[in-house]
Amino acid sequence: MTLDQLKQARLNVLARQGDTEAFLQLAQKSDPRRYALKLLELERVDEAITASQELSTTGAIFIVAQRLRDAGRLDAALALAERGLALKGDRIHELATWLAPLEETQGRKDMALEAYRTAFDAQPVIDLYRHIKRLSGVDWSNIRPALVQKAGASYSPGVLVDILLDEKDWDAAIAIAEKQIWIPQLLEKVADALIPHRPDWVIRIAIKQSNSLIEKTHSNLYPGAARWLEKAKKAYEKKGQVDDWQAYISHLRTTYARRPALQKAIAGL
After folding, report:
1. Nearest-CA neighbor of 158 among 133, 134, 123?
2. Entry pTM
3. Please, which contacts does 245-251 make with residues 24 or more away whose CB atoms are closer than 8 Å?
4. Residue 126 falls inside a structural domain
């Protein structure tokens, strides 16, 4: 057992025994996080704020900042969280997504924007992208390329597609989905979104995907094939080509008349 583990074990014993002063003495020397949290538990908030200056990890800062806010000391919580934001360490995404809306409620737009961007850099998601866009104002055209690049470099094609769809960059979204063809849920997401905008592409990709599933003759794949055919149907309807759809689905039923499982799967189409 390491020295740090021994100290943690001793702190646990003191906590169980209710020896508060001994706990505080040891925690002050060995664990600033537990020291600050114990002071907050004892409602010695000013002392806890002073002790929080010794915190050196984002995770510890996040926990103590939350407790400070709960104790009604929002200014101190924000100041501490902002220091943690600069560390960009463990739990930075959680800290940044917690801090950003609080900064907004205080009218601190620049700090909120910095927090949202830090959270996005740590873990790109479409909601953070939208918050950044909303707060960026005239700087958006300068900020956006870095966000798109980050999403593309984070091995998160789904996030990049979300961004492209949000920006109505249909062709770029199609290119990403087709490049990541082995991620069927990504292709489905794009197809669903583009029925009103690129129905011809949706028809082509939906029929291709449904055929690939039907040709494998595995009945467990037929519901997936039917799901793709439903997209094709909607795209045909969007184009006003209901007769063409009826002709296609009738041909499919005739071609595979001896596959009752498939017939059942496409019955509603």
Report:
1. 123
2. 0.85
3. 248/207
4. no
What confidence tens digit (pLDDT) does each residue in 156-184 have? 788 999 999 999 999 999 999 998 877 88
Phi-psi region of 58 (alpha: psi -120 to 50; beta: other; left: phi over 0): alpha
Q: Which two tokens stand for residue 178?
A: 């087709």
Tokens representing 36 are 């600050």
CA–chain centroid gap for 220, Å, is 31
What span, in angstroms and rounded, lies between the C-alpha atoms of 116 and 68? Answer: 21
Q: Which long-range contacts (CB under 8 A, 24 or more apart) does 115-123 make?
A: 115/85, 117/143, 118/85, 118/88, 118/92, 119/92, 119/93, 120/147, 120/150, 121/150, 122/88, 122/92, 122/93, 122/96, 123/93
What number is the average pLDDT over the span 38-67? 96
Q: Which tokens belong to 33?
A: 């996080």
State the sign of the Cα–Cα–Cα–Cα dihedral 54, 57, 61, 64.
negative
The answer to whether position 203 is within a domain reads yes
- Residue bearing tokens 């498939």: 262
Closest of 254, 234, 258 to residue 245, by C-alpha = 234
In a domain, 36, yes or no: no
In a domain, 212, yes or no: yes
**Into how many domains does the chain fold?**
1
Three-class DSSP category at 169? coil
> What is the three-class DSSP state of 40?
helix
**Backbone dihedral region for residue 91 (phi beyond 0: left; psi -120 to 50: alpha; all else: beta):** left
The residue segments making up the domain with residue 245 are: 195-269
